[in-house]
Every structure is written in structure tokens, then in C-alpha cells.
Amino acid sequence: MKKQPRLNFWQIWNVSFGFLGIQMGFALQGANVSRILSNLGADLHHLSLFWLAAPVMGLIVQPIVGGASDRTWNRLGRRGPYIFGGAIVAALAMFFLPNAGIAVYVMPALVFGALMFAIMDGSFNITMQPFRALVADMVPSEQRNLGYSVQSFLINTGAVLGSILPFVLTNVLGVANVAPDGEVPSSVVWSFYIGGGALLLSVIWTVFRTKEYAPKEYAEYKGLDLTKKKDPSEKGVMGFFRLLKQTPKTMLQLAIVQFFSWFALYLMWVYTTSAVAQHIWGCPISDTSSKAYQDAGNWVGILFAGYSLFAAIFSIFMSRIATKIGRKTVYSVSLLLGGLGFLSTLMFSGGDMIHLNLLITQVVVPSSAVYWLIPMVGVGIAWAAILAMPYAILSDSLPADKMGIFMGIFNFTIAGPQIVSGFVGGPILKEFFNGEAIYVLVLCGVCMILGAISVMFVKQAKAVN
Q1: Which GO terms of the cellular component aspect does the record hold (predicted)?
Q2: Is 13:147 a contact under the CB 8 Å cutoff?
């Protein structure tokens, strides 16, 4: 087996650069889809059901795309065709989602919006899954802490840019932030246009600036035998289930951590807008269109940008810290800080309206809105670790010739908790919390702490080929 060459920093950067645009799309989705669907008429207690489109699409798409990319090679490479194709469809869906009103003569705007959301998220997954495998393909084992940290940095930088777009367009460029009932504000519409364009351009950069290893070269670096015939039993549905039986123990142990982490993240994305509107701006539970609610929606963009910024900063140091004290320790402590961050949101509510100088403009917000940036430090650190540490831990335990399919299967540990969260989130909010969304964020904190404890039971494996 030939030793895989080390990459220089800019080669690692180019491999992951497309994550910048993809995460701009994910950030716009996370901060604004609940707002868009509410504007289109969705009930607060049913929002988590609409959001099920995201994990369901991931559950279906990622294993299929992962397995297909393991067997693909053409002039765009092995993973490149799927990354590029998914980005085109995702960008188109981002253009259509906030304009759901155009379909009113064909179907209800809310139905069209939910459909575009599903297509958009499915396309994100088509693009994202091969990206995960691409990093594992191109970056040698001894550089994976750095590789996944660069990836996390770009993801969170993209998230900052995507999260603040509606706020910047409203408060700096004066784009309208209020729309009639049943319509989406122009600030959100234009944010999705910009985000879709950035997604496509950044993915094009990675696809055409990264030269994937040809099959023979890849096999030499990974110790694979190209002359060995594929076992027919590995094909089809039954082959997939046989493959599941080979799932490394490390993946199963990480699945428990992933359950608590992604259960919490899903609830955060669905209910933070309502929590901020109710707990800080004092909006009634039924309010989904007032100026105060829209201002709260823009501030959620700032909060999400905040946790993404803190995540990006932590990502710069995470590789070195993990090398010194271990991946598991970094992962566990990060989730603990995230849990404490979520719990602390309960402390900050209401307050006098204050003038806040932000960027190149001045906004008026309740004083507690500023204090909510403190919990976002912990949430950001947890988010950075969630994006990098599970994959760094897992990649060493996966066989190189099945990297894509196993990375796709690992997505079950992301999609599954979100599906559970989608079904139980609304009933929990209604029956236990009386519609007060702030307590959903407290529940997120408890889940993150349980995830931190679960990390201790993960056993890391030595790298396999």
C-alpha cells in the first residue's frame, strides 16, 4: 500500500470550500423556514411536522447517494457529479421556496412551500453526503483533525453569512421586512436568492479545483484490490441489510450521542423564532405576522449567526486541542457547554427597549435580546464539535472502499433523532409547556448534557483500510 500524500493547507481548503455555500443555505433554512411556513399559514404546534421533510429526505437520500458515489468515476471525479448536481437543484429550490405564492392557482401556497422545502433539503443532502466522503477520501488519516476542523470553520462561516442576510438587507439596505398575510417579506426572499447563488458558486469552486484520485491511484493509497470481484450478495436491498450487520461498534456508540445532539438541534431550529418572539418581545403564542414577530425573526438570524461565529472561531483551535487532549474529551466538554447555554436562555427575558449599534446601522431591541448572545457561545462550541468530532472519530473505523455508503448510513443517526423530534415536539410544546417555546430550549439543554455523558462510552477504533 502506498502512503497517501499529505495535502497542503489550500488543498484541504479547496476540498471543503463548497461547505461555505451549502451552509449558507442550511442557515437560511434553519433561521427562516419556520418563519416562512408561519407566514404561509402553518400553525405553531404543527411546525415540527412540516420540518420532518428535512430528516426524512436525508434518511432516504444520503445512503443511496453515498453508495452510488462509491461506485462512480467520470471526468468530474467520484463524488463531484453528485455534489454539483445536488447544488443546482438546491439553488433552484431556494429561489422558489420564499415565492410559494406563485403557485396559488395550482395548489395552496403552504403545500407548495412545504414541497419546495423538501426538495431543497433533499438536494442539500445529495450535495452534503459526498462532501463528507470526499474529505475522508482526499485527506490522510493523520490530517483528518485538521481536515474536519477546516470543514467546520467553513461551515460556520457560511452559517454566519446566511444567518445575518435578512437582518442586513432590512437594517442596512432598507429592504422591506413586513409583508401582507400569506406572503413572505422581501428581506427573506432576497436572502434566499443570494444564498442560492453563493451555494452554487462555492460548490463549483470545489468541484473544479479538487482533483480526485483516479480509481487505481485511490486503491493504491487505501490498500484496495481492484482485481477482486464484488460479492453479488452486497448488491440490492438484501446487500444493504447485510452491510448494516457490518456496522462498526464505534458508529453504534456514536449513534447514542448523535440522538441527543440532533434531537436538540431540530427543536432549536423549529422553535427558536417562537421562543424569542414570546420570551423577549412578549408576542402572544398565536402571533406569526406582527412587526414584533418579524423583528424577532430577524434577531434569530443574529443569534444563529452568533453561535455560528463562535463555532467558526472554536474550529480554528479545535484540531490542536483534540490532538493534545483527545477527540472524545473535546466532544464531551463541547456538548456540555452547549447544554448549559440552552439552559441559560431561560434567565433572559423582556427588558427595556435599547438602541443597539450593530454593523453600520442602529436597531431597537429589548435589552435581553443582547444577553441571549451569551448562551450562543456554548451552543456554538457544541455545534462546531458536532460537525467535526463524530466524523473524525468514525472515519478511522470505516473501510475505504465503503466510506461513502457507511457515511450515508451514519446519517441515520442524524435523521432518526430529528424524525422523533418532529413527531413529539409539537405535542410536548402543547401538552407540557402550554405553547411557551422557551421551555423547548430548556429541553434542548438537558438533551445536550445527556449527549456529553454518552460520549464517555464511545470506544475509538484504529484506522482501517
Answers
A1: membrane
A2: no
pLDDT digits (tens, 9 = 90+) for 60-111: 777 778 778 877 888 888 888 999 999 999 999 999 888 877 776 677 777 8
Per-residue pLDDT band for 464 (boundaries 50, 70, 90) equals very low
pTM above 0.85, yes or no: no
Grid coordinates representing 163 are 444567518
Instruction: Give SS3 for 382.
Output: helix
268 neighbors 380 (Cβ within 8 angstroms)? no
DSSP for residue 2: P
Match 491511484 to its residue by C-alpha cell. Answer: 217
Domains of the chain: 7-224 (1.20.1250.20), 234-464 (1.20.1250.20)
* Extended strands (E) in 208-306: none
pLDDT band at 385 (very low <50, low <70, confident <90, very high): very high
177 near 170, Cβ under 8 Å? yes
Nearest to 417 by CA among 232, 228, 313, 261: 261
Tally of residues, the chain: 465
In angstroms, what CA-CA distances link 172 with 44, 159, 164, 292, 306? 30, 19, 11, 18, 18
Query: Cα–Cα distance between 164 and 167 in angstroms, integer?
Result: 5
**Distance from the first to the final alpha carbon of the chain:** 10
